[in-house]
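User: structure tokens for SHOCT domain-containing protein, please.
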Amino acid sequence: MPFVRRNGRPGLIGLAARTAVVAGTASAVNGAVVRHQAGRAAEAAQPVAIPPAPEQYPPAAPPQQLTVAAPAAPVDIVAKLQQLGDMRAQGLLSDPEFELAKRQLLGN
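Assistant: Done. Predicted tokens:
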């Protein structure tokens, strides 16, 4: 049978095909909407993390006092050298001990 082209309204097969496409599209869209709504409902059903009450926090450490060391008093080198000289004159220091103490004081 030769193919006859019809003008005007679609035939029975064309009408059935169009109905199937429309129904399939509607079904797919409906499924997507249902999945989306189910996902939103699941998100809403998840418990929200609530921070613990303040009494459950560990106690705060007391603030520590900062201790600042007082600056070292400047060493009066001349007075120390005189004291070492007096100790040597009194015989409390020998000459090598005096020289060693003097070098340590002067940083040599």
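User: Anything notable?

Assistant: Residues 75-108 form one domain.
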